[in-house]
Amino acid sequence: MRLNLSMLTRDSAKGIAEYRVTKNGFSVRLTDRLKVLELLGRHLGLFVDRQEHDFGARDLYVQLAATLGIDKASDQELEEASRLLEGGNEEPHPQ
Asked: Cβ(11)–Cβ(20) under 8 Å?
């Protein structure tokens, strides 16, 4: 059996990863379209990989204060906010 590849369009031929002549005819392995699209999307910068960060408690409070616009808070104010966020509605300890 003979495989006539000249009848394929250029776009169709791009989808063939491998073809083999076997004793029963031939076998064709096609490309993985989803993988090709994923690689193209990554190349074009369409996907953003998530990155997890492990912040310490103090760093988290500093970031929260900056987000809320109170990034000029004193250490005492940050410690008070820390106590409140940890679930304690206790009065701050006088210093």
From this structure: no
CA distance 66 to 60: 10
List, in sequence order, the alpha helices (H) in 3-74.
10-14, 33-43, 57-67
Residue 13 to residue 32: CA distance in whole angstroms? 14
Alpha-carbon distance of 74 to 94, in angstroms, equals: 15
User: Is the Cβ–Cβ distance between 29 and 15 less than 8 Å?
Assistant: no
Q: Vertex 56, ends 50 and 58: CA angle to 5°?
A: 125
Task: Classify residue 68 by its DSSP letter.
Answer: T
Say how far apart CA 66 and CA 78 lie, in whole Å.
11
What is the rounded end-to-end Cα distance, in angstroms, of the chain? 93
**pLDDT tens column, 15-40:** 888 888 888 888 889 988 889 888 88
Predicted TM-score (pTM) above 0.85: no
| 3-class DSSP state of 48 | coil
